[in-house]
């Protein structure tokens, strides 16, 4: 918006990976971006800095922080104690955003860490879960228990 430049999702993702950060960084990074000028309709190339990206992604990051806080507020006390002691492990592609772990730690007071292989660990964990599906199924509520939870009687 600031540069009146229209870019696609792929370009936005490439910019985020190249110079994006959840917090300002010491050595400002820059990248060239090509897109369509909204005013003239013609192709245009600009230089973006990581500080501009930090500003540009503040709203989505605020939504992420709010979601993390909401989950922590609803976490049972026994589990919350473990989370506070051990911290939160970030996984998936979003975990690769520079300083996201630091931002979440600042905003929640809970230590946050990026998993060793954030892009792969979700798939690895799902694979392990499939190997132990029988154990997982035994710990899941039955259909009847789920219905009772959804529609509790007057004495609940």
Number of strands: 5
- The ordered H/E elements are EHEEHHHEHEHHH
Radius of gyration: 21 Å
Could you name the ranges where pLDDT drops below 50 across 5 or more consecutive residues?
none
Return the structural class: alpha+beta
Helix percentage range: 40-55%
How do the strands of the widest beta sheet line up side by side? Answer: 1-2-3
For the sheet with most strands, the description reads: 3 strands, antiparallel
User: Any idea what the shape is?
Assistant: elongated
- Taking the alpha carbons of the first and last residues, their distance comes to 52 Å
Mean pLDDT score, rounded?
Answer: 91
How many alpha or pi helices?
8
% residues in beta strands: 5-15%
Short note summarizing the structure:
With 156 residues, the protein is α+β, with helices and mostly antiparallel strands. Helix content is 53%, strand content 15%. The protein has helices at 9-19, 50-56, 58-74, 77-86, 100-108, 118-131, 133-139, 143-150; strands at residues 5-6, 30-37, 43-49, 88-90, 112-114.
Features:
about 160 residues, alpha+beta, two-stranded parallel ribbon
Question: How is this fold's topology laid out?
Answer:
Elements: E1 5-6, H1 9-19, E2 30-37, E3 43-49, H2 50-56, H3 58-74, H4 77-86, E4 88-90, H5 100-108, E5 112-114, H6 118-131, H7 133-139, H8 143-150
Parallel strand pairs: 4-5
Antiparallel strand pairs: 1-2, 2-3
Could you characterize what this model shows?
The protein is an alpha+beta fold and 156 residues long. It contains 8 helices and 5 strands; from the N terminus they run E-H-E-E-H-H-H-E-H-E-H-H-H. It has a 3-stranded antiparallel sheet with strand order 1-2-3. A two-stranded parallel sheet has the order 4-5. Strand 2 (30-37) and strand 3 form a beta hairpin. 8% of the residues are buried. The model has no long low-confidence stretch (mean pLDDT 91).
